[in-house]
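Build the 3D complex.
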Amino acid sequence: MAEAKLRVERARAAFRAGRARSPGFRLQQLRALERMVEEKQREIAAALKADLNKNEYNAFSYEILGTLGEIALMVDQLHTWAAPKPVAKNILTLTDDVYIHYEPLGVVLVIGSWNYPFALVMQPLIGAIAAGNAVVIKPSEISANTAKLMAELIPQYIDKDLYPVITGGVTETTELLKERFDHIFYTGNSQVGKIVMEAAARHLTPVTLELGGKSPCYIDKDCNLEVACRRIAWGKYMNCGQTCIAPDYILCEQSIQNKVVENIKKTLKEFHGEDIKQSPDYERIVNKHHFKRLLSLLEGQKIAYGGETDEATCFIAPTILTDVSPDSRIMQEEIFGPLLPIVTIKSAAEAIQFINQREKPLAFYLFSNDKKLIKRMISETSSGGVTANDVLMHFTLPDLPFGGVGYSGMGAYHGRHSFETFSHRRSCLIKSLKMENMNKIRYPPNSKKKVAWAKFFLLTRFNKGRVGLVALALLGVLLAVVIKRPSFH
Amino acid sequence: MNPYAGVVSSLRTAWLAGKTRGAEHRVSQLEALGRFLEEQRGPILEAMALDMRKPPLEAELSEILLVRNEVTHALNSLSSWMKDEFVEKNLVTQLDEAFIRKEPYGVVLIIGPWNYPLHLILVPLVGAIAAGNCVLVKPSEISRGTEKLVAETLPGYLDKDCFAVVTGGPVETTQLLENKFDFIFFTGSPQVGRGVMAAAAQHLTPLALELGGKNPCYVAEDSELESAATRLVWGRCFNAGQTCVAPDYVLCSPATQEKLLPALGRAIARFFGPEPRESPDLARMVSDRHFRRVRALLGSGRVALGGQTDEAERYIAPTVLADVQPSQPAMQEEIFGPVLPIITVPSVDDAIAFINSRERPLAVYVFASDSKVVQRVLERTSSGGFGANDTLMQMTLLSLPFGGIGSSGLGSYHGRFSFDTFSHRRACLLRRTGLEALNSVRYPPYSERKMGLLASASQVKRKGGCSLQ
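Done.
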């Protein structure tokens, strides 16, 4: 534990020495990370398989490709994003330099989660490095193989002092959170999110919390049910349901419930064949604790499909539950497993009400051919993000900010949003010591005349004309001449 | 039961009914704020005079004019701020609609301080209303005149279902913070800021904290000292120094100190005459407690200029303390008074090292004719904002985000940044259920071929031509 403190201090000293700041250095580190991912793909996939029985395809597409894409984007855009941004000036600052200067925050802590253990550390890490910070990396101990691999690999490729990897469990994380950081990026559940934010409050450290919730999925009567169910099945059972933006539960009318079940069944057979236990493409629950948790959620439920489990391998078959009661346990917590409850409602309006009575989720999904309905349901609910007529996909566009709201989180990242999250926008006003006469308007001794002139120059007009600004500028020059005469006071 | 549960709950009801979401409602509320500023000009100036003898020009500038600019700017820009932002798509999503929706958080809380008691409530309020939220405001109990104005007169201008004012001190504020809000905007001290954030953590409420610190001002040897001194005195004495971005202390070489002192003296005399106590243009300390607090700092270093005080009036003369030591009281807390300590350092690098050894402030100032010196200080320090060759003015530009870093705060606002601060940016992707065949690449059963196809379909095209390795 004392070692962790030392490594944080070393990261801070390294940051203070200024190494992490130059764009050239950041690009070098990012390219090194890129090499790491490309060269060690096999090892990464093996660790993911050991932790979650993740197959190579899923590992490649969701953890490796995503990471490589993010690095490519950062490398491409770094110079543009890091450049000072000039902003609009007012009459008094026409001849000055006014801009926003992008700066690193300092030492950032990234706490990863176990479900996409590689990507959910790499993506924030990439953003934090691109913004010029030192980063303390704390992968989840639950995905132990990936944590071990990252602790071995990362120091081999990027600066050991600036980017230390610290492993450990709850105790170590609690100790780590006592240290002072300049930003904490946490991915995990809402309960721990509160603890992280409380710890951050002690040091007034800003936080980004990527949490979770129950992401609802509304299926309208008027939609292409076959396609909808295939997409839902894909998103729900991917990674054995252990995805923060997985569709958690379905809301639909009673009349289509059976068709939904049939379509999902059909899709699962297409995906995994007759015996899903034999399918190389289906993952496992991460550990016994979560396996038992999920089993207990099944109690008292009507299983329309699936339900097979095997504790030895942490296997739970893709399961569909029908006529689920809103008060049952499975509707009280984020499922994070391959159990799909269907709650029947009478209308879209009721679905909206149902969703709004609960905590704001990370994602909202809805399937309908009616574009107006889609727009209405989006505007009458709140969530981190939305995908209509599909699931998960809003995650894949780097220009869309990825984050939650309310209990599902605060702050966002991906692409440019990562860069902004890990940067400080420092406002700069560079004046010259000349032209002091223009300033006389604001100095005491004051007078009613000065107030009137001040208002004339400083008050924003309720119009958008640029001509006004030029005219004011000319008047300003005139005024500077006028004020020179001592009689003005 | 929590004494504020009722008012919060009724605001939440108005929020759930959607009253504040439409553009017309937001516009009407912003226009009403504009009318409040115009019609209540007299009472506003009176309240400022009562609370800290703020000179009319200062009150006009900081409490009315700057706020009106925010209102006007918001009215001018609202429709463009509210628009969905469409984003770039990749190959897979080419036919879809991808955009960022700006949505209000819900019920937001704004807690104001006492130094610019109207401005620091109304400017965040403009952002909160423009973003479509319902708002609960808690003005400072220390600036009593403004508290009364805000509590009694302001609600009459706004929709009482969607806007409410509560008053009270530290005990009441703690109780207020036990309620769940969807966003909290706090302006005040770092110490109280910690408590606000800890309370927000219980409900996972996002927040913005506008705090403070000691804003250093480095004066280089070569700078035009008359102008520098004038702008320094102006920044230090505006509102009798009770300004979060005021230059708090000066760093300069001993030689510069010698030349700066008389220049500072001349500026003070020009502004306030030979007897500043008689000038109507200098404010007073807001309370007896703050008066005594600032007076106690006068023992640091030596009084080179000013130093006079009057407890009955809560008057502190524009004062410059020379040869102050870093360990002395004037260097242990944010001064928030018309007192300017000077610490001598041999060089700009020593000044930078000194600044970096302390908490990051809301502003760093440099006076220098040499732009290289300006750049050096900018690049090697960290602060909320930065000003070269002037003080305070970066606050007046609506196009610059105003906020701190580290213990001087988190988040920012002003102009468009206020709107963004009070909005949730919701990522939206609208797809179609047609063209399902294109999705087949992502479905099991998996294969090498599918992996290859997926890699090329999701590729982010590198725009850069040649790469400098």
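The two ends of chain B are 65 Å apart (CA to CA).
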